[in-house]
Amino acid sequence: MGAKQFGARLRELRKQVGTTQRQLADKVNVDFSYLSKIENGVVPPPSENVISKLAKVLNTDKDELMILAGRIPSDIAEMLRSRETLEFGARLRQLRIEAGMTQWELASKVNIDSTYLSKMESGVKSPPSQKVVLRLAEVLNVGKDELLTLAGKIPSDIAEMLKNREALQFLRSEHTRKKARASTKKGPRVTIDKAIVRQIISFCRKR
Predict the structure, then answer these.
(1) 3-state SS of the chain?
(2) Is 120 contained in some domain?
(3) What total of structural domains would you count in the chain?
(4) Domain boundary among 150, 171, 188
(5) Looking at 46, 71, 96, which one is the last position of a domain?
(6) Contacts 24+ apart (CB under 8 A), 171-177
(7) How confident is the model at residue 86, as a pLDDT?
(8) pLDDT digits (tens, 9 = 90+) for 41-88
(9) Which residue of 5, 29, 88, 114 lies most exposed, with the fewest beta carbons within 10 A?
């Protein structure tokens, strides 16, 4: 999917409801020239907020526009952030110790400050960027998906799979069932665990 496909579909939907570019731009509170550039594929698709407004005004499925835009809906992204900062730090410390490295040695190998690494391990600092997470996984000889999941990030291959309407519907249904089962229990917010992520991958590959 890309800017041209998104723009072409947006133009098609706009014409179907019988509105001009200027009228649509006014309704979603964007500049007319910006909307024209989107339709012509000159600029990338807009933010999720703007896409939501477009879907509402054009009376169309938001997921369709999000998929065309190459984006993952925010509710899906939130479901996949299945671990807290502290847990990432604890696992990072465990992996470092198992590898027989000091904080200074690990920090040097991934080109980050040792104080920053110490704060991550203690849960004081949030998990780093995906680029740093991937370097950590390589140095510690651990699966990148484990650290990415713990860091609340979405592995790129799974992200690509989720740019699929059926996959989104499947994930939302699984999340709803899990939330219902947990509704009578006290604890942290309901999230999607690794088992469900594996189900998503299996589901997508069968399509």
Answers:
(1) CCHHHHHHHHHHHHHHCCCCHHHHHHHHCCCHHHHHHHHCCCCCCCCHHHHHHHHHHHCCCHHHHHHHCCCCCHHHHHHCCCCCHHHHHHHHHHHHHHCCCCHHHHHHHHCCCHHHHHHHHCCCCCCCCHHHHHHHHHHHCCCHHHHHHHCCCCCHHHHHHCCCHHHHHHHHHHHHHHHHHHCCCCCCCCCCCHHHHHHHHHHHHHC
(2) yes
(3) 3
(4) 150
(5) 71
(6) 171/76, 171/79, 171/196, 171/200, 172/75, 172/76, 174/199, 175/79
(7) 60
(8) 999 899 989 999 999 999 998 988 988 887 777 777 666 554 445 688
(9) 29
Q: pLDDT under 70 in the chain at which residues?
A: 1-2, 77-86, 152-159, 162-163, 174-207
Tell me what pLDDT residue 192 has. Answer: 45
Residues 91 and 146 in one domain: yes
pLDDT reported for residue 190: 38
Domain hosting residue 194, numbered range:
156-206
Residues 135 and 185 in one domain: no
